[in-house]
Amino acid sequence: MEDVDISIQTSALNHYFGTGEARKQALFDIDLQIERGSFIVMVGPSGSGKTTLLTLLGCLREIQEGSVTLLGQELRNATAAQNVRMRRRLGFIFQAHNLHQSLTAQQNVLMGLQVKGHLNQALSDKAAAHVLSLLGLAERLDYLPANLSGGQKQRVAIGRALVGNPDVVLADEPTAALDWETAAKVVDLLKQLGQARGTTTMMVTHDNRILDRADRILTLEDGRLVGDEDRRS
C-alpha cells in the first residue's frame, strides 16, 4: 500500500556506466526516504553522482540495480509508457535553460502545460502569466529568449517546470545564474509549494546560500551518500 507521506524512496540503488573492463560504478547502495512536501538540497563535489541520482529519480535513466519508488510507482522494470506518465507528474529544472528561441517567455512556459495534457487555452495562458509574475517577469511575457538576460531565461525555465503544479520538482543547479535576491525568491516559492500543495523538491546545488533554507541536506561523495542532515528541528 502506498505511503502517501513518502514521495521518493530508494533501496540499495546502484548505477554503472560503460561495459566490460570500462564499466565504472557511479552510485553505491543509495538508501533514501524523502517525505512529501519537503525541500531537499543535495551537495557534494563535481562527479560525485548527484546529477546521476537526479536523472534516475526523474525516469530519465533505467534503474539497473536496487529499487526506486516514485509517488508510489516502482521504477525498476517500468515500461516506457509508465515512465512517460510519471514524468508528467514531475517538474525538471536544469542548468541549461533549453528555451525555444522562437517562442516568447509565456509560450515557453505554456509548453510545461502542453506536455501534461492541459488544453484550455485561456486558463493555460493565465497560469503561465501568473507563474512568471511570481518570478518577477510580469513585464517580460512577450519577450523572446534573445531579449532576456541569462537570469531571466533561467526564471522562464523555472516557470515552465512549476506551471503544471508538479508533485515533485527535480532541480540541477537552478540558481547558478541568479543573483541572491532572485535565487532566494525561487527557493522560497518552492518551499511555499511544498507547504501549500505538498510539492517535494530535490535540488542539486553548489550554492551555499541555499543551505539555510533546506529541510534536509544530503551529501554525496564518490557515489556514496555520506551525509543526511535534518535541519527542521
Structure overview:
There is one protein chain. The chain is α/β, with parallel strands linked by helices and 233 residues long. Helix content is 30%, strand content 27%. It has helices spanning 50-57, 80-87, 105-114, 121-134, 150-162, 180-197, and strands at residues 6-17, 24-35, 39-43, 65-70, 73-74, 90-93, 168-172, 200-204, 216-221, 224-230. The strands form two sheets. It has a six-stranded mixed β-sheet. It has a four-stranded antiparallel β-sheet with strand order 2-1-4-5, covered by helices on one side. α3 crosses α4 (121-134) and α3 packs parallel to α5. It is globular, with a radius of gyration of 18 Å.
The N- to C-terminal Cα distance equals: 29 Å
Report on the biggest sheet. Answer: 6 strands, mixed
Oligomeric state of this protein: single chain
Count the DSSP helices: 6
In summary, what is this structure?
This protein has 233 residues and is an alpha/beta fold.
What attributes does this structure have?
single chain; 233 residues; four-stranded antiparallel sheet; 27% strand; alpha/beta; six-stranded mixed sheet; 30% helix
Secondary structure topology:
Elements: E1 6-17, E2 24-35, E3 39-43, H1 50-57, E4 65-70, E5 73-74, H2 80-87, E6 90-93, H3 105-114, H4 121-134, H5 150-162, E7 168-172, H6 180-197, E8 200-204, E9 216-221, E10 224-230
Helix pairs in contact: 3-4, 3-5
